[in-house]
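We were asked to recover a plausible sequence for a given structure. The inputs and outputs are reproduced exactly as logged, with field labels preserved.

PROBLEM: sequence recovery
POSITIONS: 267
GIVEN STRUCTURE:
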């Protein structure tokens, strides 16, 4: 009887996952943003403010990871997807500044925030950083809506029809890898919350300000899937690989100091 119940529960779980995947695959394929040119200017101002605060707070690792992710987003979105027709920008002559806002600025701010969350600071500090990032994005978009400075409209489109299944599989593989590496369920839930919260912040303010009026379904999909494609792998890097890199750098410094001391003694 226990085996039968186990099989029934397993079938229900698999069936539930299958139905969820069908739902997620039906989400809007063309992801559209409509915004004015001045939105890019306000975004640049917030980017500089955020970078300044990171420097003042001496958040070196978040800065480095943010820079890498910003460049990576530029390569994927601004070069690969642009040249393969996945992405469109209208009018195309504003591609450079749009790339900076949608790729580099987003990638830098978003994954700098992720690394700050991974540092497991006190709860109050994490809340302050979260409010800082979300309010910055929301105010940036709202100012563009209410202050008529440069009202030239720009439209960006991502054609995601052939990428939905890839995105979902990437997320599943990332969390299976966490289980395989024997992370406890609290850590896995924390990682999932970090990815969920980041995408929710990114997408909800676009929905509120009508920059991306795609509805609740896309907000749910992106919150579950979008940044959770990368967050599990980034946590593994942060937890498993980065400490070894730091240790190796420290050993190199120590060995260099020892060599310098020996050379002084000999002379």
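RECOVERED SEQUENCE:
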């Amino acid at each position: 009887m226990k085996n039968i119940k186990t099989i029934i529960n397993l079938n229900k779980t698999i069936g539930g996952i299958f139905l969820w995947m069908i739902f997620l695959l039906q989400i809007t394929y063309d992801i559209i943003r409509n915004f004015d040119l001045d939105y890019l200017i306000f975004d640049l101002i917030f980017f500089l403010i955020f970078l300044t605060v990171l420097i003042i707070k001496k958040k070196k690792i978040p800065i480095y990871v943010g820079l890498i992710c910003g460049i990576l987003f530029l390569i994927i979105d601004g070069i690969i997807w642009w040249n393969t027709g996945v992405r469109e920008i209208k009018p195309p002559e504003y591609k450079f500044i749009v790339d900076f806002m949608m790729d580099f600025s987003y990638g830098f701010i978003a994954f700098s925030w992720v690394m700050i969350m991974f540092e497991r600071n006190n709860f109050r500090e994490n809340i302050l950083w979260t409010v800082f990032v979300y309010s910055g994005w929301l105010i940036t978009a709202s100012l563009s809506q209410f202050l008529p400075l440069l009202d030239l409209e720009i439209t960006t489109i991502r054609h995601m029809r052939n990428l939905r299944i890839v995105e979902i599989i990437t997320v599943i593989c990332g969390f299976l890898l966490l289980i395989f590496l024997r992370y406890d369920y609290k850590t896995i839930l924390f990682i999932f919350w970090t990815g969920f919260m980041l995408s929710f912040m990114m997408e909800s303010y676009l929905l509120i300000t009508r920059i991306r009026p795609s509805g609740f379904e896309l907000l749910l999909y992106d919150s579950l899937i979008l940044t959770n494609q990368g967050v599990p792998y980034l946590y593994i890097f942060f937890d498993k690989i980065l400490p070894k890199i730091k240790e190796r750098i420290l050993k190199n410094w120590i060995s260099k100091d020892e060599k310098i001391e020996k050379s002084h003694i000999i002379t």
